[in-house]
Write the structure tokens for this entry.
Amino acid sequence: MEELLINPKTGKEYVNVPPKVAARYLGVSEQFVYKGLKQGVLPFGTAVDAGKEWMFNIPIQRLKAYKNGYDIDMLSAILRQAFDR
């Protein structure tokens, strides 16, 4: 399954995973990922309405953490507290 996260153009892991790839990696529909990111309900990425099209940002480490069942919001809060001191 991790091979899905390899960019075929570079042979290296994606930094920003395309939504279609993220959907296959998670075993969900593309619609689920696109809609969830646009509505802001999926914690592993963001979507921005850029006028004529949407732009998506899915950092690979957040996607992996989400798939492995980690609470990304909680981890982010802990890291913010640790580094804000």
